[in-house]
Amino acid sequence: GWQAALDAALAGTPPTVHFENVSTAMATLALTRLAPYGRMVLCGLVDQYHADAPPPGLPAGLIVGKRAQLSGLVVYDFYDRWDAFLAAWRAPPARRPAGARKTGRTPKRR
Q1: Is the pTM for the entire model greater than 0.70?
Q2: Which are the contacts of 43, defined by CB distance < 8 A and separation ≥ 6?
């Protein structure tokens, strides 16, 4: 059916961008084919407009409504920085400027 036609159209080259406004099911299908570091735009979810409740799982409607941006993070992408991270962690804490809060933020200048 249409999924086979889609696979044939992609010809082994995964898409890097997907625009979704139909459903979370279609978004999930697109995610399975999306290239690593690909981007997806959620514009709307037509299948949810008249639903009594959102489908289970990630509340995609909230992502659309909040205009939120999500990024995937895989820890092994940063293994090459592990030694630098440990060195920074073991180093003595930096001295805070006078008046800095416990959060470590520098106070605003007047």
Answers
A1: no
A2: 19, 20, 21, 64
